[in-house]
């Protein structure tokens, strides 16, 4: 675990040093849980968004996009249930004065039980070697069985307390499990209270409830209230989807783990409108599709898993998370939710406007059901970075080796696709030639020209920002009109004619390789 914590710290400092993510308002000591994307961060983030957008819209004839406003009529949030039910249970420790999410304190306790079980399994695996049957051991070893049963029993109790909104029960559970404040070590807790996560502001200059506005906590509502506009203008028939990428805001009680839980973040959401009764079919379809999207990035099987929700949100009749193994453990990366007709029905009721669809095949009008896929762009960014960050020894070509830090970002997502490097900087013929190549390639993809420092240092700089290809222009290039392409991960170098460089690299960094797999 210490190794993983260490890795996470390294990723955070690498992100800042190499221009991926800066703490917001840093010269004023920062603003809690708010971050800015830097020079390479913005490129990577844009590429992630493009991968999602193309996969969802361009690859599906029946999915179209919108970009709705962040400010929306305040009644929208009443109708959606967010005013009354978008709460987290908070609890304070009276000694440290620290504030916690009560459910997360219990989840932390459950994680410790899981860790204890995993530790036993690991010890046994070491003891039994190759013959070890992990599944059998988990089922039969009394200690592992006890930890697992205890964890499952607590998970069940927590889910029903949250579903019933039983705050007294939640406090009683914290006391029963003797959970102590990580800061003070004491068990001197306040009662559990509900805390609404929406930020509010006001419209114009006059205060009061009438002019109160909320910063949207999800982009989905902008899609629901535009459902009929989009259906009519795009002439789509059910089933069809509407996709959107945009900012969302939540006043998280405990915002932590870098860009994993932020107060201002970005979502990539798609609402898929389907005839009632077919929603579970589509729910299964989207589970498969979304997992395929993640795996196309080369993410190993064992780093991704599904986790069914124990506690359903107020709008859902089924929900599952796609979890990724971040350096701090498996956590939610994306949610897939069957939202029934809850949102459209609520909006129809509160607005007084019909939100029905006439189905020519069924010859009837109805409120569509909705299956949603919702992924945080920032969490996706963190998952790409966590996977890409690698420290390794590389041969120096003279029998020795040196350490390098390289971001093995999938080539189509890399912020810079190709760096053009003249071997030395003080030979005008070389720099001229390299600049000509750069000026041609820059029309095809994001390129960088760099002639500062020795070639080895320049390679390291490109490795550190994840550039998949470096094109080196050397003295021979002047005669044979060829350059060397160095591949970031394999370090293989190939000599190719200058006239073929664009075609070779364009093919390898094309997003098609992801969309097609
Ligand atoms: N429209 C459904 C919805 O918003 P959610 O599970 O609350 O569902 C969807 O959020 C996704 O948004 C999550 O899977 C996560 O990736 C991202 N997300 C949620 N809260 C976040 C936060 N505070 N910081 C960063 N990403 C967040």
Please give the structural blueprint:
Layout: H1 2-17, E1 21-23, E2 35-37, H2 39-58, E3 63-65, H3 75-79, H4 82-85, E4 87-92, E5 99-101, H5 102-128, H6 134-140, H7 142-164, H8 167-176, E6 193-196, E7 200-202, E8 212-214, H9 220-224, H10 227-234, E9 240-249, E10 264-274, H11 279-295, E11 304-308, E12 318-326, E13 329-340, H12 342-351, E14 357-359, E15 364-366, E16 369-376, H13 377-388, E17 389-395, E18 401-407, E19 418-422, H14 428-441, E20 447-449, H15 455-465, E21 469-473, H16 475-480, E22 482-487, E23 493-497, H17 498-509, H18 512-515
Helix pairs in contact: 2-13, 5-7, 5-8
The chain binds glycyl-adenosine-5'-phosphate.
The site of glycyl-adenosine-5'-phosphate (GAP) has 19 residues, from β10, β13, β16 and α13.
Q: Compute the number of helices.
A: 18
| Poorly predicted runs | none
Q: Supply the helix-strand structural class.
A: alpha+beta
Strand content: 15-25%
The count of β-strands is: 23
Radius of gyration: 26 Å
Give every kind of bound small molecule, once each: glycyl-adenosine-5'-phosphate
Mean pLDDT, rounded to whole units? 94
Distance between the termini: 34 Å
Q: In terms of quaternary structure, what is this?
A: single chain
Instruction: State the major sheet.
Output: 7 strands, mixed
**Helicity range:** 40-55%
What is the molecular shape? globular
Tell me the strand order in the biggest sheet. Answer: 3-9-10-16-13-12-11
Tell me what the structure shows.
The chain has about 525 residues and is of the alpha+beta class. Strand 12 (about 320-325) and strand 13 form a beta hairpin. Helix 2 (about 40-60) crosses helix 13 (about 375-390), helix 5 (about 100-130) packs antiparallel against helix 7 (about 140-165) and helix 5 (about 100-130) crosses helix 8 (about 165-175). The radius of gyration is 26 Å and the shape is globular. The two termini are about 35 Å apart. Bound molecules: glycyl-adenosine-5'-phosphate. Glycyl-adenosine-5'-phosphate (GAP) binds near residues 261, 265, 269 and 378. Glycyl-adenosine-5'-phosphate binds near residues 335 and 379.
